[in-house]
TrEMBL record:
InterPro entries: Homeodomain-like_sf (IPR009057), HTH_AraC (IPR018060), HTH_AraC-typ_CS (IPR018062). Pfam families: HTH_18 (PF12833). It comes from the Bacteria. GO terms for molecular function: DNA-binding transcription factor activity; sequence-specific DNA binding. It comes from Cyclobacterium lianum. Residues 300-408 form the HTH araC/xylS-type domain. This is AraC-type DNA-binding protein. The keyword DNA repair does not apply. The lineage of its organism: Bacteria, Pseudomonadati, Bacteroidota, Cytophagia, Cytophagales.
Length: 416
């Protein structure tokens, strides 16, 4: 594990500021560990996917909590055999975060057998550390005293078969790869969720959790980079190392607080609230006079997923949405999807997607979207890739062009 901050000054004195920092870090990480455990327990009980995020937070917070307690607070002197026992857990933080992103986007539950492949790096690291685990108690106690005196030596004298700095570098690169792939999945299937300027991203728990996970990974990656430069080239970066330590720990703290304060979003426990009169379901009812209302969806898992993709995740806002992508998110093949849409909605894929896009555009018109923006912008934000397609789909659904609808709405005409 990389050093987080130096325990002592060059004079060997332990400043009060370091004591305060250590106390703050330990308390933050202890609370984050407890909070993650509660999140896992509640999520398992309610059957939501958030337990995967809870495991990722638990591994992160436990890893750093143990490090500070053992080597900066000196607890490892009592139990020297525990040195390096939690290191393999850090190889699991990124996979479980990826599982959370994947299962949320594709509405999957749990893990499958092939997901066990993601645990191989952690298992290999356990095997790599076997020579160190088999050291005698006396040798480990001697090393523990050295690590407590100067935690920076941990990465120099606690190797397995592979040097610690190489293992840490590989782990951070692997974490970055998992994070990059998770971001790509969000960009491909829910681009609005990854755009920090989009209001939907600011309200979406998955987007906020992703941003905080990026912050944590950035802090850890940056710290390790500067530590490597310092260790191998002899440069000194005490201010930067301290800064990125705070970035990492504060990222964990904010993520833990957010999970604690938003249980109804993250556990899937929605509070009973009156329906928003401008909700898209209300707008869809406005189309009933045209015979275009969405029929009731049957209670099958696939139909439920399709309904969720359309009404909650609003995947129709993606301009590049293709039938194959939608089928993958719904968990069926394209042929079965087309049959199900005809049976349940009496529409083909493109017709159904345009139906929801038009309903979304009407919702925005009633909110006063055109008071400050253009019809071209509305067409793009509604998921259409051209103004012509937008106008044709709108007129097919409503019998009016968007501009005609807007004019009548402004004049106070009842369009319901």
């Amino acid at each position: 594990m990389a050093v987080i901050f130096r325990k002592k000054t060059d004079q060997g004195r332990h400043p009060l500021s370091m004591e305060v920092s250590l106390l703050i870090f330990i308390n933050i990480l202890f609370l984050a560990t407890v909070n993650a455990t509660i999140l896992i327990a509640i999520s398992h009980r309610t059957g939501t996917k958030t337990y995967l995020l809870g495991w990722s937070l638990l591994f992160y917070s436990l890893f750093f909590l143990v490090y500070f307690l053992w080597f900066h607070a000196g607890w490892i002197l009592r139990f020297p055999h525990f040195i390096r026992t939690v290191n393999p857990l850090m190889f699991l933080t990124a996979p479980f975060f990826y599982f959370y992103i994947r299962n949320t986007l594709f509405d999957r539950n749990g893990l499958v057998f092939k997901d066990s492949l993601h645990f191989i790096p952690a298992i290999l690291h356990v095997l790599d550390l076997m020579p160190f685990y088999l050291l005698s108690y006396e040798r480990k106690l001697e090393l523990a005293k050295m690590f407590v005196e100067d935690p920076g030596t941990l990465n120099l004298y606690a190797d397995g078969f592979v040097p610690t700095y190489a293992v840490d570098s590989f782990r951070i690169l692997l974490m970055s790869a998992y994070l990059a792939y998770s971001l790509w999945l969000m960009y491909r299937y829910q681009p609005n969720w990854i755009n920090p300027l989009h209001r939907e991203a600011l309200r979406n728990p998955l987007s906020i959790a992703t941003f905080l996970f990026v912050l944590i990974t950035f802090g850890y990656f940056s710290y390790h980079t500067f530590w490597m430069i310092e260790a191998l080239a002899g440069f000194q970066f005490p201010g930067l190392l301290s800064f990125f330590t705070w970035v990492t720990v504060m990222g964990i703290a904010v993520l833990s607080i957010y999970l604690h304060l938003n249980p109804e979003k993250l556990y899937g426990l929605q509070r009973n609230q009156p329906a928003d009169p401008r909700d898209i379901s209300t707008v869809v009812k406005d189309l009933e006079k045209e015979g275009k209302a969405t029929p009731d969806v049957k209670s099958s898992d696939t139909a439920r997923r399709i309904n969720e993709l359309l009404t909650q995740k609003q995947v129709f806002l993606r301009q590049d949405l293709k039938v194959g992508d939608f089928a993958a998110m719904a968990g069926v093949n394209s042929r079965d999807l087309s049959m199900l849409l005809q049976n349940e909605y009496h529409k083909g894929f493109r017709e159904l997607i345009n139906h929801y896009r038009v309903a979304y555009a009407i919702d925005k018109l009633k909110e006063g979207y055109l008071d400050s923006r253009t019809l071209d912008a509305l067409s793009r934000d509604s998921g259409f890739n051209s103004r012509v397609t937008f106008f044709n789909a709108f007129k097919k659904e409503i019998g009016l062009s968007p501009s005609e609808y807007w004019s009548r709405f402004q004049s106070g005409e009842d369009l319901s």
